[in-house]
Amino acid sequence: MLKIEHIGIAVQDLEASSLLFEKLLGTPAYKTEEVASEGVITSFFANGPNKIELLAATNPESPIAKFIQKKGEGMHHIAFAVTDIVAEIARLKAEGFVVLNETPKIGADNKLVAFLHPKSTQSVLIELCQDIK
């Protein structure tokens, strides 16, 4: 793993949360994007070399809607940048981690993504991200 790619925060109201983070960080979101396959709309903020992704559900069946219903708004996941997501999935699976996506899928911000189940990572959802070239 290369670095923390971003921290994902589940929010109910993307517009209100984006305004809050604009004030907090002193800069607007650099990108807002819908990922229809996941039922989510995202807003990305840069803060130095770090990024924050706000995630809001676009339908009540989306993973973000279910997360907020169960746990409320707050930190949803930590994403790590990797150079070879397929090799990293295989390595982590061999180490005993529970992989939710054995085949990477297209995510937000021009990335291939895969997730590790929180039950194998001390209750923290981990996302692996590889830039799509």
Gross morphology = globular
For the largest beta-sheet, the strand count, sense and barrel status come to: 8 strands, mixed
Rg to the nearest angstrom?
14 Å
Q: What is the CATH-assigned architecture?
A: Roll
Within the largest sheet, what's the order of strands? 2-3-4-1-5-8-7-6
The count of domains is: 1
Beta-strand segment tally: 8
Kindly, what is the distance between the CA atoms of the first and last residues, rounded to a whole number of angstroms? 18 Å
SS strand fraction: 35-45%
Q: What is the top-level CATH class? A: Alpha Beta
Order of helices and strands: EHEEEHEHEEE
Q: How would you name the oligomeric state of the polypeptide chains in this document?
A: single chain
At the fold tier of CATH, the topology name is 2,3-Dihydroxybiphenyl 1,2-Dioxygenase, domain 1
Structural class: alpha+beta
Nearest-integer average pLDDT? 96
Give a verbal description of the structure:
By secondary structure, this protein is an alpha+beta fold. The protein has a single domain, classed as 2,3-Dihydroxybiphenyl 1,2-Dioxygenase, domain 1 (Roll). Helix content is 23%, strand content 40%. The protein contains three helices and eight strands, in the order E-H-E-E-E-H-E-H-E-E-E. It has helices spanning 14-25, 63-71, 85-94; strands at 3-10, 31-35, 40-47, 50-57, 74-81, 105-107, 111-116, 125-131. The chain has an eight-stranded mixed beta sheet with strand order 2-3-4-1-5-8-7-6. The longest helix is centred in the first third of the chain and has 12 residues, at 14-25. The mean pLDDT is 96.
